Amino acid sequence: MTNSRLSTNRREPLQGGQAIRRALAVLRTLAVGGERGVPLAEIVQATSLTRPTVHRIVHVLIEEGIVERSERTGNYIVGRQVPELALARSSRSPLMVAAEPHLAAVSAQLGDTLFLTLRTGLDTLCVARRIGSYPIQVLSIEVGVRRPLGVSSAGVAILAAMPAAEARKIVLANEARFGAYRTDATTVLGQVQLARRRGYNLREIGLVQGTKSLSVWIRTPDGQPSAAITLSAIRNRMNPRRTIEVADVLVAAARAIEAATPRD
Fold this sequence. Notes:
Helix content: 40-55%
Strand content: 15-25%
């Protein structure tokens, strides 16, 4: 009786793997919104699902405590139960452990802010930030910020390390989400192609006005591009000569991180 009542009340029409994938797409979209949350219309646009489908999914997730709705804005946000569930896996990834001393060393050497970004599905996730010693630091991304692959400098670098067909597939899958970041698939694919030729990604205009970013991809022991190390600095610290110096240091650090990362 209880199961029948719950099924009726939740009006859960979606079944099987497709339903799970749709729910995960909604959750990933909400994760990008962070504490601000995401309105229903943006979830529909980002996931390419119909409005009724998104509405049903978020309300089932609300009933399960996985999603919450802000009383102030009406936006949907990731529920507090999610980080509680994550406590079951509190250990950091081997790559993060391997990267830590190299982030500290490179930040001390170059003096600017460094970021470590991981690939997670169709997104990037900033997992570490090291602030340098130079008086003006570029703190463009907070730890925990998630963005669609292709939006950030790190995301472009990760895509550049993939086979062209695989990168294109991911970019097209994220195309509907790019509008919120004032970019598009054609622009991203062009950036990926240029980064592939250079061996790193140089973003002439960073996320913060008057800054530049340089990112180098990091591969897992099985050869998959899964992360990137990024330096962000004010523009006058990234003249052509220093850009080459920064690229050389970051490439060396990325290769050292790869060598230090054990197989799972």
